[in-house]
Design a protein that fits this description.
Blueprint lengths: L1 H18 L13 E3 L3 E8 L7 E8 L7 E6 L4 E4 L10 E8 L5 E11 L6 E10 L21
């Protein structure tokens, strides 16, 4: 009797495990995001040189459905991406603009993670370069004594 009960229990558990599996659906028409380049080297530029710290990643939707980018996130707060909020139709191109904070000095290698409804999401693109320190001025501003401050006699 125990064997029959045990066998029934095993069959019941096995059948529940088999039927509880999620069905994986593959969308063959899903959008595919394809970048012209996945790495942009900004080269060497001076600190506070704002135009040199910006770049653009151009991409194309090579899939059959509209591409919707839900998020683009830099690896740290110094890398700020902006992306198109409207859907990119099949065959069309779009641009993700990236601005790096040029106030920091030294070499950098930052990544931007793009999350979308694409078949190959998430995608990672990278920006690298080197920032040289701006020259410091030798002269310091002249501080005038305030009329309100006490004067030692």
């Amino acid at each position: 009797m125990k064997k029959i009960y045990f066998l029934t229990l095993i069959i019941f558990i096995t059948s529940n495990i088999i039927t509880a599996q999620e069905q994986i659906t593959i969308n063959y028409n899903a959008p595919i995001i394809t970048f012209e380049t996945e790495l942009i080297d900004l080269g060497t530029f001076m600190q506070y040189d704002d135009p040199s710290s910006k770049c653009e990643f151009t991409f194309t939707n090579t899939g059959k459905e509209p591409l919707i980018i839900s998020k683009a996130k830099g690896s740290c707060g110094c890398t700020v991406p902006s992306w198109p909020k409207e859907p990119i139709m099949s065959g069309e191109t779009g641009v993700i603009q990236v601005n790096y904070d040029e106030k920091r000095v030294g070499s950098f290698n930052k990544s931007i993670t793009i999350t979308s409804n694409a078949k190959n999401s998430p995608q990672i693109v990278k920006v690298k370069g080197k920032i040289l320190a701006a020259e410091k001025k030798d002269s310091q501003p002249i501080k005038k004594q305030s009329n309100l401050a006490p004067v030692a006699k």
